[in-house]
Amino acid sequence: MSEASAVPTLRAAAQEPGSEFVDAANTPETRGIELIDDTQRHGRARDLFFVWSAPGVSVLNITVGASMTLVLGLEIWQALLVVLASSVLAILPGIVAISGPAAGTSGSVIQRAIYGIHGNKIVIAFYGWFISGVFLALNWVAASFIGGELLGRWGFPAPVLAPILVAVVVSAITVLVAVYGHALILKAYMGISIGLFVIFALVIGFIAPTLDWGFSQPAPLDGVPLWVSITIAFALMASSPLSFSNSADMARYLPRETKASGIIGATSLGQLFPAVLITAFGVVLGGSVGPETLENGIEYALLENLPVWLAPLFVLGVLVNCISLNGMTTYTASMALQSIGVPIRRIPSAILIGALGCAFTIVLVLASDLISAVNLMLQFLLIISVPTMGVYVADIVLRRNRYDGDDLFDERPGGMFWYLGGFGVAGLVSVVVGGFATAMFLSTTVWSGPWGAALGGLDLSVPVGLIVSVGLYALLAGRTVRAQIGA
Fold first, then answer.
1. Total Cβ atoms within 10 A of residue 242
2. Is 187 exposed, middle or buried (0-12, 13-18, 19+ CB in 10 A)?
3. 91: part of which helix (H) or strand (E)?
4. Per-residue confidence at 441, pLDDT binned at 50, 70, 90?
5. Which of 331, 401, 382 is nearest to 51 (CA)?
6. Other C-beta atoms lying within 10 Å of the C-beta of residue 85
7. Mean pLDDT over all residues of the chain?
8. How many CB atoms lie within 10 A of CB 188?
9. CA distances from 406 to 3, 285, 363 (A)
C-alpha cells in the first residue's frame, strides 16, 4: 500500500459507522493514528491525573534532585526554590493535551498543522521516534542498575550481565503495556500510582531520620558561580515537562466537549504533584551522601539504608515506575512511524521502538558515571524538546485549539496543510532557530554555548529557546493560522 492511499484508508476506517473497534484494557489496541469517531469517545478529564502521576514517582527525579546539592553545589533551600520555579512548566504539556480531543488523533499527526505534510515527517521521525528511544533508555537505565544490584545480593553470579538482564525483561514488559495501549494505561495507572506512593512513602520514612536536614555546603556558592548552578539545575528540571509533548495522545479519546481547563489541570497536576515531592527528597538526600555515589547512582544510597524486607519493594517500585513511564512513551512513539507514512501497524512499531530503547539502555549500563551521563543527556535533549514544545503550544494558542481531523489527513497538494511543497516553513524555521538559540545558551560539562559563556556560563537555554521559538512562530505563522481558522 502506498503512503498516499494508506492514510485516507485509516481515516475512512475510523469514520465508518458501526466500527467494531473497542478501547478495552484486556485487548491489544489495534488503532493507531486513525481518527476517533465521536461515538467512540469516552472517559473524563480527571482520569488523566493518575495517568501522569504514576510516571512522576520516579527514582530519576531523585537522581536529578540529588545532583543539585551533590554535584551543582546548591544549598537545600536554593535547590527547592529551583524545583518550585521549574514546576510552572508542567502547564505546557497540559496545553498540548487539549489538542488530542479537538483533533481526535495522535499529536504526531496534529503537528502537520505546524510543519506541513512533509516537513512534519522530518520532525516526527527524529523527535517522535528516535529521541523517544533515548528517553526510554534514560528511565530504564536506573532500573537496570538497581535491579542488577538486587540480583547480585541474591547470589546472581554475573554482575555485568545482571543489569542487562533486568533491562531486557523490563523493556519486554514495557512493550507489552504499549501493545495493549490506551485502555490498559487508563485503567491500571490509578492502582500503580497509589502503590508507588505507598512504597516511596515507606522508603522516605525509613531514610528521613538518617538525612542531614541541616546540611550546608562546605564552600557556599555566590555571585556568578551560584547563578550558573541555579540555571543548570533549572534546565535539568525543565527537561521532564518539556519532553511530554505526547500528552495529546493520552487525551485523544476524551469526548470533544470535555472542558479544556479540566484536561490542562489533570495533566499538569498529575505530573507536578509527585515530581515535586520526590525531587525535593532527592535534594535533601544529595546533601547527605558522599561523592562516591556518583559512580553507581543515587539509588544505591537508598538501598544500603533500607531494611531487608523493604529493599525488594523499593526495587519493585523503581521497576514498575519505569514500566509505567516508558509504557506511555513506547505507546505514543508507536504511532510516530505511521504518521510519517511508513506502512507499519502500531503494534509492530511499538516492538521496534522498545528494541531501540533497550539497545540504548545497554550502552548506558556500561557507562561508569551514571549520574553524569543522565544529566548530560537530559540537557542536550533540550535542544530538541524546548523548541518543539514551544511551537506546539504556540500553534494551539494561535489556532484557539481548532483542529479538523479531515484536514490533517488531507495529504494532497493544495490541502490546508500542504503549505510550500508540503513544508510548513514557519514551523520549521521556528524550531531550527529556537533549537539553535537553545544550544547557544546551553552549559554542560562537554559543551558551553558561546552566548551563555559570554555571560559567565549561565544556562539560559530553556527560557531563551522558548521565547525565540514561540515568538518567531507567532510572527511567521500568525496570519496564516488566523486565515485557516477563519476558513
1. 26
2. middle
3. helix 91-97
4. very high
5. 331
6. 14
7. 87
8. 18
9. 16, 52, 42
For 453-479, how does the pLDDT look when each residue is reduced to its tens digit (9 = 90+)?
A: 888 889 999 999 999 999 999 999 999
Nearest to 242 by CA among 106, 374, 392, 443: 392
Between CA 41 and CA 186 the distance in angstroms is 14
Q: Directed axis angle between helix 59-70 and helix 370-380, to 10°?
A: 100
Ramachandran sector of residue 308 (left: φ over 0; alpha: ψ -120 to 50; beta: rest): alpha
DSSP 17-71: TT------TTS-----SPPPPGGG----TTHHHHHHHHHHS-HHHHHHHHHHHHT
Give the orientation angle of helix 346-365 with respect to helix 310-333, to 10 degrees.
130
| Residue 111 exposure: Cα atoms within 13 Å on the Cβ side | 34
Q: How far apart are CA 315 and CA 59, in angstroms?
A: 10
Whether the Cβ atoms of residue 390 and residue 384 lie closer than 8 Å to each other: no
b/e map 385-409, b = 16+ CB within 10 Å: bbbbbbbbbbbbebbebebebeebb
14, 44, 75, 319, 427 from 128: Cα distances, Å = 23, 26, 37, 24, 16
* Measured distance CA(239)–CA(149) in Å, rounded: 28
Contacts of 259 (CB under 8 A, 6+ apart): 45
Rounded distance, CA 465 to CA 472, Å?
Answer: 11
pLDDT band at 9 (very low <50, low <70, confident <90, very high): very low
Buried b (16+ CB within 10 A) or exposed e, 124-149: bbebbbbbbbbbbbbbbbbbbbbbbb
Which residues contact residue 475 at a Cβ distance below 8 angstroms, ignoring those fewer than 6 apart? none
Question: Distance between CA atoms of 109 and 417, rounded to whole angstroms?
Answer: 11
**Coil/strand/helix, residue 117:** coil
129 grid coordinates: 521516534
Domains of the chain in sequence order:
43-381 (1.10.4160.10)
Tell me the torsion sign for CA atoms 280, 281, 284, 285.
Answer: negative
The pLDDT, as a whole number, for residue 126 is 79
With 0-12 CB in 10 A as exposed, 13-18 as middle and 19+ as buried, what is 157?
Answer: exposed
Grid coordinates representing 138 are 534514560
pLDDT, tens digit, 9 for 90 and up, residues 272-316: 988 899 999 999 998 888 776 656 567 777 888 889 899 899 989
